[in-house]
Structure formats: C-alpha cells, structure tokens
Design a protein that fits this description.
The protein starts with 14 loop residues before the first helix and ends with a strand. The protein has one domain: Four Helix Bundle (Hemerythrin (Met), subunit A) (Up-down Bundle). A 3-stranded antiparallel sheet has the order 1-3-2. The protein is mostly helical and 216 residues long. The protein is globular and about 55 Å long.
C-alpha cells in the first residue's frame, strides 16, 4: 500500500483489515483441502479466490479512507502467508515443482528477515511497492493454474500455458522488486536512526519506500 504514513490511522477494526483477516483465516481451509486428493480441486478453487482478492483489501482501504498502520502490515502478510501455505501444500500434493516454489519462498524469507532486522535495529519499515503487489498477484494466479494443469483437471494444457506465462512474468517482477527493496534497505540502514519517542516520518514515500517510526 503506497499511502503516506501521515494519512494512516491506528484503527484496528476496519473493513480492509477484516478482509485481510478473512483471507488469512481461509489458509488452513485451502491447505487441508489441497493435501487431500479427494478435495484438491475444491482447495484450488478456494486458493484461487484468495489469490483473486489479493488487491481488494488495499483498494477498499484507499477508496474508503480506512488506511491503517495495521493494514499496511496485515495486507502483505496475508499475501505472503497465502503464497507460502499454498506452495507447501501443493508441493506436498505433487502438484507444483519444488524448484519453482523455492524461487518464491527463498526470496520471501530473505526479504522478511531483512525487514525484521531493519525494524529492530533502525526503527524503520520498508513500504510495499506497487510492482511487488503486481508480482504477487501474478504468482498467486500462476500457482493455481500450474497446479490445476499438473493435476490434469479440465483444460489442463491451457491452464499450464497460462500458469507458466504468469510465473515467468511474476518471478521476474518479484526479483526486480527485491532489488528495489535492497536499495530501500541500504538507504534506511545508512540513514540516522530515530530516537525514542520520535514522530513518524516518511522518507520519500512512493519513491524510496522507507518509513521511519520512533520507538513507542
């Protein structure tokens, strides 16, 4: 979500946050359905719905003026959790290649660890970039399509063609975004750390993507 921190609230109970919570709550459901051969198709459909609603929480937040600090974290967390859970379930089910899953998961883990270290050490958070959201959406679609085709469901060849097309585009965007995040991390790390109690300050929101928070 690319809003400035100054426009965000501390509210927890908002419609966008509820949507994110619902998306997270569906994760155990589609994982359980996917790993069971008798319900894999239903699990893929639920996963597809979660993937298709990737943009909804952020769009609702902007449209209704309900952008919140929690939402800025919850939205990407919902995306990352859904992708990781779906990939692990599908690899276990034999419906998605391990190498393709690792390309996604390794990048996510690296960004997560770097972000946590930055937050603890410098009191800064890296804002989610729009390209990252586009890449995530493409990859979530690709995962569903590839699994659908691999398992031989209806229109399997078309699903595989669409899935691998989305995957190639999405994974390139994913690593381009990772390089941009690396630049954000470097700038945040070399900038002076905020003192305790400092007010929130966005450094180049939408440009360098670094948000600084004082320790509360």
């Amino acid at each position: 979500m690319g809003e400035a921190a100054g426009s965000a609230t501390d509210r927890v109970l908002t419609v966008p946050n509820l949507i994110s919570f619902v998306r997270i709550a569906t994760i155990p459901l589609f994982v359980a359905l996917i790993v069971d051969p008798d319900t894999t198709k239903a699990g893929l459909i639920v996963f597809g719905v979660v993937a298709a609603t990737d943009w909804v929480d952020g769009a609702v937040a902007r449209a209704t003026g309900q952008v919140s600090e929690l939402g800025k974290v919850l939205d990407p967390v919902a995306d990352r959790l859904a992708i990781a859970a779906g990939l692990i379930a599908l690899v276990v089910r034999g419906a998605f290649p391990l190498w393709a899953a690792l390309l996604i998961l390794v990048r996510d883990v690296a960004i997560l660890i770097a972000g946590l270290v930055l937050l603890r050490s410098r009191g800064a958070r890296i804002e989610v970039r729009y390209l990252g959201k586009v890449a995530t959406f493409a990859l979530m679609l690709s995962i569903g399509f590839i699994a659908w085709g691999t398992l031989g469901f209806a229109f399997a060849p078309a699903a595989l063609a669409c899935g691998w097309s989305f995957y190639v585009v999405g994974i390139v965007e994913y690593y381009v975004t990772a390089a941009l995040y690396a630049g954000d991390l470097r700038r945040a790390w070399t900038s002076p750390a905020r003192s305790a109690g400092a007010s929130v300050d966005v450094l180049g929101s939408g440009a360098d993507g670094i948000e600084r928070n004082g320790s509360q």
